[in-house]
Design brief:
Blueprint: E1 3-5, E2 11-13, E3 30-32, E4 35-38, E5 57-59, E6 63-67, H1 78-90, E7 96-100, H2 109-112, E8 126-130, H3 136-139, E9 147-151, E10 162-163, H4 164-171, E11 179-183, E12 189-190, E13 201-202, E14 208-212, H5 218-221, E15 225-226, E16 232-238, H6 248-252, H7 260-263, H8 265-268, E17 270-276, E18 289-295, E19 300-306, H9 313-334, E20 343-347, H10 355-364, E21 370-374, H11 383-386, E22 404-411, H12 414-430, E23 438-445, H13 453-465, E24 468-475, H14 477-486
Helix pairs in contact: 9-10
Length: 494
């Protein structure tokens, strides 16, 4: 990669770019930070040129990006040239490095693992590696890193590269780590039943942990970590894939490990849970189910179950509808915070969810104060409004502190409104003590039955007599069309 002169005779790399945000003074006059990129294997890398005698300027390189495009590049020293150039000239200024291997069945690990020793660059704090699984010896040099991302092991392996126990032992040396992301490395790590239990690894500085597409060692990796209650944990699994569990319960079971509250404090400190199957914002990764628990001290725990784009829309849509039913029952197990829990938010098509799925939520979170449902409910779902528990409706109120219920996209029928009034009547009548006065926000889709304004006023007055400050609003037909499309996977949208 040849060096050229810019208008100010300051040498920069033609294959890279100048980062204006990264400027700082490293000489007595001025200095600029560049990005060294090795993308074209046919372009030679020349040594840095000396500035003209009348200039007192230097290039302070802070970022290097090495990209190998073909299997041929694995064996002719392209990566070595880039890293050697960076080490020889920018050893003490290089802060970020990204190494991308080609999509090939050839395994580059034996060839390149000795070139990516992080201790070659004392100032390095961020390292991204794609398509290469470093050896244990290489990983031990990552101990001073603050940001590490290992992702996209493209090739299929005939054997594993490292045992999970060895990986966890290495992980214990990364005490300065603030962000760790592992994606798509499940062929590289092995764990056999009967292997020695890995040690507990404290990561006191870790702020964010992302583990994606490695479900089979969730159950082994997570119990070995000890994180702060302010940490953000994000786990991603994929449904309908031969390498993944076939059912939701199989995906979920790793999170029932014993003693997890000592290692993941956020799980027992959750004050708000959000369950959604709606598509995320445009440009982000699609998922079929997301469960998020927000802790009282700022941490969070997110479980994403993605749907496979190669599958037909019908099974995917059915999965989304049934997944939220399962998620409601599983939430109190994943987040056993009990009386600390205050808010539950659901954004999904809830019209197929039965009453029995809500009972674990009400029993598990007796101090629930706010319940927000965006996606409608079944016409006979009385427990949702009164937070009743037990096998029959004539039972005591479970959520005595419930102060706000907001339901949107509920399909209006006379039966539905009767159920709402009956529920709050039971709540008032069956409470062991005076239940909290409840604010109800109810958004109705009016399609099959007329709902004249006078009926709306009567319902509001009736609910007020039952201790409910009700606000009922009718949503437009356009809202109904929005509802039909919001909870479908992208292939089903018209």
């Amino acid at each position: 990669m040849a060096l050229v002169q810019n208008a100010q005779d300051v040498p920069v790399f033609s294959g890279g770019s100048i980062d204006p945000k990264a400027r700082r003074s490293v000489t007595r006059t001025r200095s600029q930070h560049g990005i060294l990129e090795a993308k074209d294997p046919n372009v030679s890398i020349d040594p840095p040129q000396t500035p003209p005698a009348n200039q007192t300027a230097a290039v302070s390189l802070t970022e290097v990006k090495a990209i190998c495009k073909s299997s041929k590049d694995l064996y002719d020293g392209k990566l070595q040239k880039v890293l050697d150039l960076a080490e020889n000239n920018y050893k003490h200024t290089l802060e970020k490095a990204e190494i991308i291997m080609p999509r090939t069945y050839a395994d580059p690990s034996p060839v390149y693992q000795h070139h990516v020793y992080a201790d070659r660059f004392p100032a390095l704090h961020s390292l991204h590696i794609a398509g290469l699984f470093p050896s244990a010896a290489t990983m031990r040099t990552f101990r001073h890193l603050r940001h590490l991302r290992l992702y996209s092991l493209y090739r299929k392996l005939y054997g594993n590269l490292m045992s999970l126990n060895d990986f966890i032992n290495v992980l214990g040396t990364w005490t300065q780590l603030e962000e760790l992301e592992l994606r798509g490395y499940f062929p590289a790590l092995s764990f056999k039943q009967g292997d020695a239990q890995p040690p507990i690894v404290p990561l006191p500085n870790l702020r964010k942990l992302t583990v994606a597409d490695v479900p089979q060692f969730f159950a082994v990796l997570l119990p070995c970590l000890r994180l702060q209650p302010t940490a953000e944990v994000h786990l991603i699994s994929q449904h309908h894939h031969p390498a993944y569990p076939a059912t939701y319960n199989d995906i979920f079971w790793p999170f029932t490990f014993n003693g997890r509250g000592n290692k993941f404090p956020v799980l027992n400190e959750v004050v708000e849970v959000a369950i959604t199957t709606a598509n995320p914002e445009e440009g982000t990764e699609d998922y079929a189910l997301r469960i998020i628990g927000h802790g009282a001290r700022g941490g969070s725990f997110t479980l994403d179950i993605r749907s496979a784009a190669s599958f037909s829309p019908a099974p995917d849509s059915e999965f989304r509808r049934s997944a939220v039913d399962w998620a409601l029952q599983a939430a109190p197990i994943l987040f056993p915070s009990g009386a600390r829990m205050r808010t539950l938010r659901c954004t999904a098509n809830l019209r197929m969810v039965q009453e029995k799925s809500w009972i674990p939520v009400f029993l598990g979170y007796p101090a629930l104060e706010e319940l927000v449902v965006d996606g409608g409910v079944t016409a006979d779902l009385g427990r949702l409004f009164a937070a009743l528990g037990g096998p029959v409706r004539e039972t005591n109120v479970v959520c005595q502190r419930l102060r706000r219920v907001a339901v949107r996209d509920a399909l209006y029928t006379p039966k539905f409104m009767d159920q709402v009034a009956r529920c709050f009547h039971q709540r008032q009548y069956n409470s062991n003590r005076a239940a909290a006065r409840t604010a109800l926000q109810l958004g109705l889709l009016v399609c099959d039955y007329p709902y004249p304004p006078e009926h709306q006023g009567l319902h509001v007055a009736k609910l007020k007599e039952l201790g409910v400050d009700a606000e009922i609003f009718v949503e437009s037909p356009w809202d109904f069309m929005r509802v039909l499309s919001k909870y479908l996977p992208p292939d089903e949208e018209s």
